[in-house]
Amino acid sequence: MNDESHIVTFVLRAGLGILLGQLACWGQQSLCVRYLPVPTYSRLARMARLEGVVNVSVEIGADGTVVNVSSTGAHSLLRHEAEENVRQWTFQCPARDCKFPFTHRITYVYKLAGDNRYEDPPPVVKLTLPDRVEITSHPPTVETQNRSK
């Protein structure tokens, strides 16, 4: 991929996050997600074949931003990815009786499916907002050098 296609991919992902967040809040009577960036499944985590469930606890401030994050479960690399992603989320609580800071739990599920790929397609992300994020990707091919001479 050249630099231009990386920029276009980033802009599309950022725009998708904003659009999904806005659609999620439309007509909601409870906590909703106003913005979320597209979650990632790092190449390093996929190369190590890391999978698992990360339970993230977020503390949401009165302005809807995440003020504190903690997580349990899965490998620390996956926990770090989930925490970094959710730190960027913004929420809206339409009920007038919301007490802030408000604590909410989100489950991230990281799964590998299929065979190794030479190309690195983006992961498939399934959102069940505001409680669950499932990220499924192919494991990458690990390139090795042939040292027999």
Could you explain how this protein is built, in words?
This protein is α+β, with helices and mostly antiparallel strands. It has one domain (3-137): TolA/TonB C-terminal domain (2-Layer Sandwich). Helices cover 26% and strands 30% of the residues. It contains three helices and seven strands; from the N terminus they run H-E-H-E-E-H-E-E-E-E. It has helices at residues 3-25, 43-47, 76-86; strands spanning 32-35, 52-60, 66-72, 90-92, 102-112, 124-128, 132-137. A five-stranded mixed sheet has the order 3-2-5-7-6, with helices on one face. Strands 1-4 form a two-stranded antiparallel sheet. The longest helix is centred in the first third of the chain and has 23 residues, at 3-25. The two termini are 32 Å apart. Mean pLDDT is 81; it is low at 1-12.
Summarize the structure.
Helix content is 26%, strand content 30%. By secondary structure, it is an alpha+beta fold. It has a 5-stranded mixed sheet with strand order 3-2-5-7-6, with helices on one face.
Chart the SSEs and their pairings.
Elements: H1 3-25, E1 32-35, H2 43-47, E2 52-60, E3 66-72, H3 76-86, E4 90-92, E5 102-112, E6 124-128, E7 132-137
Parallel strand pairs: 5-7
Antiparallel strand pairs: 1-4, 2-3, 2-5, 6-7
How far apart are the termini? 32 Å
**Unreliable runs:** 1-12
Give the strand content: 25-35%
CATH architecture assignment: 2-Layer Sandwich
The level of helicity is 25-40%
Overall pLDDT score: 81
